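Risk register update: the risk that structure generation would not scale has been downgraded. Supporting records follow, first protein first.
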Amino acid sequence: MHIHILGICGTFMGGLAALARESGHKVTGCDAGVYPPMSDQLRALGIELIEGFGAEQLALKPDMFVVGNVVSRSHLPDGTPKFPLMEAILDAGLPYTSGPQWLSEHLLQGRHVIAVAGTHGKTTTTAMTSWILEAAGLQPGFLVGGVPLNFGVSARLGQGKAFVIEADEYDTAFFDKRSKFVHYRPRTAVLNNLEFDHADIFDNLAAIERQFHHLVRTVPGAGAHGSGRVVVNGLEESLARVLHMGCWSEVRSFGAAVSDFTAQGEANDFDVLQQGKVVGHVIWPLSGIHNQLNALAAIAAAEHVGVSPDVAAQALGSFENVKRRMELRGKVKTATGDITVLDDFAHHPTAIRTTVDGLRRTLKTGERILAVFEPRSNTMKLGTMKAQLPWSLENVDLAFCHGGGLGWDAAAALAPMGERAQVADSIDALVAQVSQSAQGGDYILCMSNGGFGGVHVKLLEIINKNGL
């Protein structure tokens, strides 16, 4: 089959393209601003990439157009369609489908799908689960919304029965407003956490809870009626409400004192307990209670495909995390100590807070955290959670916000932080603010779900140049 993917350079669609190519399909694709690293990865696989969404691509005559959720029916100010290829597909009556649906129908059939859902930690927990299964010799397939450092690729088919997938609650496509994850029909569903996000498509938390329940509805029953499992964070009231709507599967909880799987010890050195009994021990370089919870979720999911908790815990000791999760981008030596620049994907206020808290627990007295962030997600651009920013940044020493292009006043939102917070309208101005404030021993934590204008490299360059 020849498929042509619209929006191929996104993490999910790029991963889908790699999987389709690996399974023997002919794959071509297009995107606006065909950009690395995904473009480089795809071209290395022999996938032809086309710049833009021009209608002339109909001449490729694929068997199916696979449409990413970047595509819409919107028009430019002059009235021309923003995605003329999509308009041409519709006008010609040609076959098209969404990425999640194509994946479900062509690559997930017959697999034991482990779907990892949640507002936070999906990528990391998907990578952890994949690594546990790999270390146990199960050769899993996976599709991760990032690049797990243990594998070096975001997706592969795998030789085993299990397929681990990051299960996003964002909508599927312009013609299918259900969450992506309802297409995956998992046998194991991980509900990592749940709070309000994606204000551009969800009106409130209850609307997201309803979508999570649609996922629960697709998991096979328990006992004599099937072999499905729902792994749920026992600390989350929102997830308790989801399960209260109805659950037909075996449930395994983690995190709370009365949960099936709990942890005892520090975030980077802890016992794993199953129903109160120590069944494994994890020692790893990851920080933060959120990663400890991610580990428990991964262990509970892996147990469902036959990996014992002690084997899973041992595997996590060699887990190398995911790119852009507390990733070290560089250090600059100064007379008073190193200045360390870190990169993280955190963009929701809760994720920012947990990321900061995790880093804070690893630092010595007197070492400072300089948080550099941009409200870039659709939810943050709308200003829906601006009031939570001072709370999310409570444990940083200084905060620097890129406020350019927002429809709300970032300086006003951060005013409760007083002189600890600064706002800049451009990346260069932001870099100047940070470099003027940095001193030896500081940790500069850059947080964004985008490229952030190369702020990491710029910071390292100017700090080096200034010779602090």
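Supporting record for the second protein:
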Amino acid sequence: MYQDPLHASQYGGANPQLAAPLRVGLLGLGTVGGGTYAVLQRNAALIAARAGRRIEVRRVAVRNLARARSVLGEAVGHGIQLSDDALSVVQAPDIDVVVETIGGTGTARSLVLQAIAHGKHVVTANKALLAEHGTEIFAAAQAHGVVVAYEGAVAVSIPIIKALREGLSANRIEWVAGIINGTSNFILSAMRDEGLSFADALAQAQALGYAEADPALDVQGGDAAHKLSLLAANAFGTPPLFAQVQVQGIDKLDALDVEFARQLGYSVKLLGIAKRCGPALELRVHPTLLPHNHLLAQVHGSMNAVMVKSDAAGTTLYYGAGAGAEQTGSAVVADLVDLARSQCVAPTQRVPALAFQPSALAALPVRSSDETSSAFYLRLDLERADTTVPRVLQQLAQDGVCVEHMQLFEHPGDAALHCLVLRTAPLCLGNLHAALETLQAWPTVLGFASVLRIEMLD
């Protein structure tokens, strides 16, 4: 008779058929480490039933021992050894897998490489570490026959790495595009829906805990670029190419452009886009206009979403929380479950760290931002619009820029000025910049043009 495993007596871990537990050493017990521990403790029986063995935290290394004791409670000394020496955890013979949650790329890199050298599997949610040092770390893992798993490093609660590595393994990926930074998406949502300036929206995000006191990595696009380099590696069979991602953040975005885009039927989103273009790739992070009815335009607040276009599966969409303690912990534990299931599998039979077998990885050339083509939104602030607008259109046509739509708005800050908003046909950014140089020298064109890409993502 079928017995629901959620209510089976052996579900709590007494089943003699369960293998020896997977022994975990946890580095850090902050947001990610604490969330991981909470999920493992609360759902221990459920996780064991799925993994076929228990997953037990045996050692924890932290800086603040008093705080850690308040989190771990009676488990300290009764199953868990607590220490402020991370290296002792990494080198411990009774640990199968090291979970790195301390962040950064200095100490974390050293500890991860030490763990690998001692034959430990590694699970991490550290996107900066893998984007910047992934080639070294994955090569070391291959040499020592261990796994480096990192589902929590990209889009947190969304299993997008597993989807690219396994669910879409039969497909030739054409492009990946996503909202992969929750802080920036929260700010852009507030700018659009509440009419806030960037500074006011950022202050709101900080007050609510969505943005750090120093938000540079989020609002300048660096965090999204880290994640995009890992997505592209899994989609296209390259090593992480973080240094070649073309990055533009939202910190210089004018609220006027967000409002004008809204009136034209678009939403502005910070997108990470990785696209195959013949023998080369496009890797870019930038604020982007999307039609209001596009699925990614419906992603609001701090949520994340990733869209993948592939030849056989077509277009697929993955949506979920992009941050949070237990959300990240969920992804970390999913990696631990995979390890528990496959720890005894021969290294050559495991799912490759970057979706492709290491011997098949190749660093493809990446197009510069000026070489990549799209439609564009342009805003020019003008004096004497009645005479300047025809001259602008004439000059753009002369320079090979096809204008598909134009609209003139009164400048909300100066009644003597007008804002000319244009939507172009697709062209390379380099060609557009060359055309705008002439216009920006005219005395009736005030300041630099506002230029934003438009993507349809059909």
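The two ends are 49 Å apart (CA to CA). On this basis the risk owner (M.S.) recommends closing the item.
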